C-alpha cells in the first residue's frame, strides 16, 4: 500500500537560519552547519537552539542533509506564501484565523502540472487524516473550505484521499435503513447532515475520483425517505433533504424519482403519535418501498467502478406514480365525504428556498462565495450538467443574482479577439455583476481596481437551459439561487481551460484588457497571472 508523507515546510528553517530562499548558496549552508556544530561543541549542554527547538549534534547533521537535498524550492515557497494551503498541509484542518486570500500563480500549464505532481502526495495525507474528524462530527462545512484544493490531486492520489468518504457513503444505505426500521419517530438528530447542501457539494467533487458515488448515495437516501414518510416529527425534513438531494450529480432517472417523491412529501403529512395507518396506506407505502428496493444499489458495491445504476424507463416510472396517485385519491374518497383542500405549497420552480436580497450593512456574498460560484460553473460545464431554465430573459447573456455591486468609478475596456463569445463574471465587496462581449468585439465597463473575476466563454448561446448556483449566505445560512439567463451550447476545450482560470485586476496597470486569440488575457500589454 502506498504511504503518503506529512508536509513540513523547509522555508521556516531557512528563515530561522537567516538564509534567503531566493538564492540558496551551498557554501553558505556549509558555513552555517559548521557554526552550529561549533556552538554545540563548546556548549555545556552539548546542544544549540534553532528557533524554539533544541538540537544536538546528530540533529544538526540530519537537518542540513535534508536542506542540502531539497529540490523544487520554488514550490515550497509558493506553499509558504499561501497561508490557507500551508496550514492545511501542516495541520490537516482549516485555520480559524482571518487571513487574506492568496493565490498561487504559474505562467504555463506545464508548471501547474509539475506543481500538482509535487503537492498531491502531501494533500492526500492531509485530506485522508481530516476525513475521520469530518465524518465523526459531520463537519462538512469545514471540509468544504478546502475542497478547491482537490484540483491539485492526481487521479490515483484522489482515490486514496477520499477512501473514507467513499466507504461512508456506500455503507450509509444500510445504516439509514436500520435507523428507519428501529425508530418510531423521525431520527432527525442522527440524519441532520442529509439536509446540508455542503455534504452533497463535497460528494459531487469527490465523484471526480469515484464516478458512481452520487448514484449509490442517492439510492440509499431515497429509500430512507420513503420509509420515514409518515413518521412523527418528520416536519419539513424530507422536503429539505429533497431540495439538497436534487443538487447531487446522480443519473437523470434518479433525479426524476427524487423530484416526483418530493412532490408527494410536500403534500403528505406525518403521523400523530397515536395515529395508526390503515391498510390502504400500508399497501401504498409497501408498493413504493418494494419498487425502490428492487432498484437499490447494494451497499457493498464498489462505487469507484464503472457499473451504472439501472432504473425503469420514463414510461414505467410515470405509470408507477399514476397508480400511486390513483390509490391515494381512492383512499381519500373512502375516508371523507367532502374533499379537503390540498395544503398550499410553493411552486416547484427552483430547487432552493429564496431569501430576501442583501440589506445595507450586511455581507451575504464574500470572496469564498465567489470561489464557490466559480467552482460550480466549472463543474456544470465539465459534466454538461445544465438545468431547465424556469425564467427566460431577453437580452445579452448575463448572470442573475440578488447581490448588486456598489457604485464603481473606474472605467475599463475588454477586447475579445477569440472566436468565442464571453461573459466576464466579477466580484468586489459584497456584489456580483457580469459583462458580455461577443467574439471580435470590445466593451467598456466599470470595475474596482481590486476586483476578482473569471470568464465563461463558448458559442451558440441558448436560453433553454441554465447554470444554477445555490449560494448559501455566510451571514444567515439561507440559500439564494444565482443563475445565468442561458448557457453556451458549444464549449471547446480552450473555452473550458479559460473558464477554469481565476483572475484579479491590477489597478496599477492600464485599464485596457485584451483576451487574445490564444485565449490568454493581457492587461496593458502584460500577461495577466491567474490561479485555478
Describe this structure as you would to a colleague:
This protein has 532 residues and is of the alpha+beta class. The protein folds into 3 domains: 123 residues, no CATH class; 174 residues, no CATH class; 161 residues, no CATH class. It is built from 18 helices and 17 strands. The strands form 5 sheets. It has a 5-stranded mixed sheet, with no helix packed on it. A hairpin with a 2-residue loop joins β6 and β7. α2 packs antiparallel against α3, α12 packs antiparallel against α15 and α15 runs antiparallel to α16. About 10% of the residues have low confidence.
Strand-pairing-aware structural class: alpha+beta
Radius of gyration: 28 Å
Ranges where pLDDT stays below 50 over 5 or more residues in a row are 273-277, 297-315, 335-362
In which range does the helix fraction lie?
Answer: 40-55%
Helix tally equals 18
Q: How many separate structural domains?
A: 3
Amino acid at each position: 500500500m502506498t504511504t503518503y508523507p506529512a508536509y513540513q515546510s523547509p522555508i521556516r528553517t531557512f528563515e530561522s537560519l537567516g538564509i534567503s530562499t531566493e538564492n540558496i548558496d551551498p557554501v553558505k549552508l556549509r558555513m552555517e552547519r559548521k557554526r552550529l556544530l561549533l556552538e554545540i561543541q563548546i556548549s555545556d549542554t552539548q546542544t544549540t537552539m534553532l528557533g524554539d527547538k533544541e538540537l544536538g549534534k546528530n540533529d544538526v547533521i540530519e537537518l542540513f542533509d535534508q536542506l542540502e537535498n531539497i529540490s523544487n524550492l520554488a514550490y515550497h515557497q509558493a506553499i509558504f506564501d499561501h497561508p490557507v494551503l500551508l496550514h492545511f498541509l501542516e495541520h490537516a484542518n482549516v485555520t480559524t484565523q482571518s487571513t487574506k486570500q492568496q493565490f498561487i500563480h504559474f505562467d504555463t500549464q506545464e508548471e501547474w502540472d509539475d506543481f500538482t505532481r509535487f503537492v498531491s502526495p502531501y494533500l492526500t495525507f492531509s485530506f485522508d487524516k481530516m476525513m475521520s474528524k469530518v465524518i465523526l462530527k459531520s463537519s462538512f462545512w469545514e471540509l468544504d473550505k478546502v475542497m478547491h484544493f482537490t484540483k491539485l490531486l492526481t487521479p490515483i492520489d484522489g482515490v486514496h484521499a477520499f477512501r473514507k468518504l467513499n466507504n461512508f457513503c456506500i455503507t450509509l444505505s444500510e445504516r439509514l435503513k436500520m435507523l428507519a426500521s428501529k425508530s418510531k419517530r423521525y431520527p432527525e438528530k442522527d440524519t441532520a447532515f442529509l439536509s446540508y447542501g455542503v455534504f452533497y457539494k463535497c460528494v459531487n467533487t469527490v465523484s471526480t475520483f469515484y464516478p458512481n458515488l452520487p448514484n449509490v448515495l442517492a439510492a440509499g437516501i431515497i429509500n430512507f425517505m420513503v420509509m420515514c414518510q409518515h413518521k412523527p416529527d418528520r416536519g419539513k425534513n424530507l422536503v429539505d433533504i429533497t431540495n439538497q438531494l436534487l443538487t447531487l450529480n446522480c443519473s437523470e432517472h434518479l433525479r426524476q424519482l427524487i423530484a416526483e417523491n418530493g412532490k408527494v412529501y410536500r403534500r403528505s403529512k406525518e403521523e400523530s403519535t397515536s395515529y395508526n395507518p390503515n391498510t390502504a396506506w400500508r399497501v401504498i407505502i409497501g408498493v413504493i418501498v418494494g419498487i425502490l428496493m428492487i432498484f437499490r444499489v447494494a451497499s457493498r458495491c464498489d462505487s469507484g467502478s464503472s457499473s451504472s445504476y439501472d432504473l425503469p424507463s420514463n414510461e414505467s416510472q410515470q405509470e408507477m406514480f399514476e397508480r400511486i396517485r390513483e390509490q391515494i385519491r381512492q383512499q381519500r374518497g373512502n375516508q371523507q365525504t367532502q374533499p379537503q383542500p390540498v395544503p398550499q405549497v410553493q411552486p416547484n420552480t427552483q430547487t432552493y428556498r429564496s431569501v430576501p436580497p442583501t440589506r445595507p450593512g450586511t455581507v451575504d456574498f464574500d470572496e469564498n462565495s465567489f470561489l464557490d460560484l466559480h467552482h460550480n460553473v466549472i463543474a456544470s460545464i465539465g459534466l454538461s450538467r445544465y438545468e431547465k431554465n424556469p425564467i427566460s430573459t431577453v437580452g445579452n447573456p448575463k448572470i442573475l443574482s440578488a447581490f448588486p455591486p456598489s457604485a464603481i468609478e473606474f472605467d475599463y475596456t475588454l477586447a475579445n479577439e477569440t472566436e468565442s463569445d464571453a461573459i466576464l463574471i466579477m466580484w468586489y465587496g459584497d456584489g456580483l455583476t457580469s459583462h458580455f462581449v461577443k467574439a471580435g468585439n470590445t466593451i467598456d465597463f466599470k470595475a474596482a481596481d481590486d476586483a476578482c473575476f473569471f470568464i465563461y466563454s463558448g458559442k451558440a448561446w441558448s436560453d433553454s437551459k441554465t447554470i444554477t448556483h445555490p449560494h448559501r449566505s455566510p451571514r444567515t445560512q439561507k440559500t439564494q439561487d444565482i443563475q445565468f439567463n442561458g448557457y453556451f451550447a458549444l464549449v471547446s476545450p480552450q473555452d473550458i481551460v479559460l473558464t477554469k482560470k481565476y483572475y484579479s485586476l491590477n489597478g496599477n496597470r492600464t485599464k485596457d484588457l485584451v483576451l487574445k486569440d490564444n485565449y490568454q488575457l493581457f492587461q496593458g500589454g502584460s500577461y495577466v497571472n491567474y490561479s485555478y
